[in-house]
Design goal:
Order of helices and strands: EHEHEHEEHEEHEHHEHHHH
Structural class: alpha/beta
Number of domains: 2
Strand content: 15-25%
Helix content: 40-55%
Distance between the termini: 38 Å
Length: 277
C-alpha cells in the first residue's frame, strides 16, 4: 500500500505546474504517488505533464474531457488514490521543505486521533509580473484547541500544505460538490473533519503560495466570502467563537472591497498579510 497520495488538480496550468511537480519529486520521503487531474485544459498542460510522467512511474495523469471544476476533480483524485494519507498541492504552488511529507507522515503515525495536519506558508509574488520573491511568511495555529478557537473566523489551513486521512474523508463523502461550497470546498471539509478528530499545524514553513493580484480581484472572491458566511452559520454549534468569527468574516469582506481600490502593491501585500495572521 502506498503511504501518501498527492492530489494535484489543474486547469490551464502550463506556466507553473512543472515547478509544482518537481517540488514533490524533491521530497526525501519517496513512498508517494502523484495524481494529476487535468480538468479540461485548453493549453499544453496535458503535454507538459505527460512528458514528466513518462520518466516517473509514480505520476498518474488523468484527464477530464471537459472542465468539471475543482470539487469534482478533487473527488476524482480521492477515489483513484491508493495511499493511506492524502496530501494536496496546487499547480501554481510549491513545497519548499524537502521533508514536508516525512514530517507529516510521522506526526499522523504518532497521533492516531489527528485527522488533519497542515504547515506554515511562505507567500511569494508572481514571477510573471517581474517578481518571484518572498513577500512574507506565516504560521497557522498549532494545536487542536487553538485551531478550534479560531476556525470560525478564518480557514486555519493552507490547502496546498495539508495531509489528512483518506478513509475518514471518504466516509464523509469527500469534498462537497454543491454550489454552497464552491471556492470554499477545503474549508467545508476541514469543518466536517474536525467533528471526527483533532487538528494540528506543524510549525514549519513548508510550502510556497503564489500571490497573484489578478486572482485576488477575481469575480469569484465575492462568492467565496458569501459561501464562507454560510459555513460559519452552518457550523456555529460545533466550534466556539461564532460571533467573533462572523464579525471577522464581515471585516474581511469590507477589507477586500477596499483592497481593490488600493493602487500601491506594497500596501496590498501588508493588508493581505494581516488577514492571514
Amino acid at each position: 500500500m502506498i503511504k501518501v497520495s498527492v492530489i494535484l488538480p489543474t486547469h490551464n496550468g502550463e506556466k507553473f505546474i512543472t515547478n509544482a511537480i518537481k517540488s514533490v519529486q524533491a521530497q526525501g520521503f519517496s513512498d508517494w504517488e502523484l495524481i494529476i487531474i487535468d480538468d479540461g485544459s485548453m493549453d499544453s498542460t496535458y503535454v507538459v505533464v505527460g512528458g514528466l510522467a513518462k520518466n516517473d512511474s509514480r505520476i498518474l495523469l488523468l484527464k477530464n474531457e471537459k472542465n468539471l471544476g475543482i470539487q469534482k476533480s478533487l473527488n476524482k483524485g480521492l477515489h483513484e488514490a491508493r495511499g493511506e494519507f492524502i496530501a494536496r498541492i496546487d499547480d501554481d504552488d510549491e513545497w519548499s521543505d524537502e521533508n514536508k511529507l516525512k514530517k507529516q507522515v510521522e506526526f499522523l503515525d504518532k497521533n492516531s486521533d489527528c485527522v488533519l495536519v497542515g504547515t506554515g506558508t511562505i507567500v511569494f509574488d508572481d514571477p510573471l509580473a517581474g517578481g518571484g520573491k518572498e513577500i512574507f511568511k506565516y504560521l497557522n495555529p498549532e494545536t487542536d484547541e487553538k485551531i478550534r478557537n479560531q476556525i470560525l473566523g478564518k480557514n486555519c489551513f493552507t490547502h496546498t500544505s495539508v495531509m489528512f486521512r483518506k478513509d475518514i474523508v471518504l466516509s464523509l463523502g469527500g469534498y462537497d460538490e454543491s454550489e454552497a461550497t464552491l471556492h470554499v470546498e477545503d474549508y467545508d471539509l476541514w469543518l466536517r473533519l474536525g467533528k471526527k478528530g483533532k487538528f494540528a499545524n506543524l510549525q514549519v514553513h513548508a510550502v510556497k503560495w503564489r500571490f497573484r493580484e489578478n486572482a485576488l480581484s477575481s469575480k469569484n472572491r465575492i462568492l467565496q466570502f458569501k459561501n464562507s458566511f454560510g459555513l460559519v452559520l452552518k457550523f456555529r454549534k460545533d466550534y466556539p467563537g461564532f460571533l467573533r468569527g462572523y464579525l471577522r468574516s464581515w471585516l474581511r469582506l469590507i477589507a477586500y472591497c477596499l483592497f481593490k481600490f488600493i493602487p500601491i502593491l506594497r500596501v496590498k501585500y501588508f493588508l493581505f498579510s494581516m488577514g492571514k495572521r
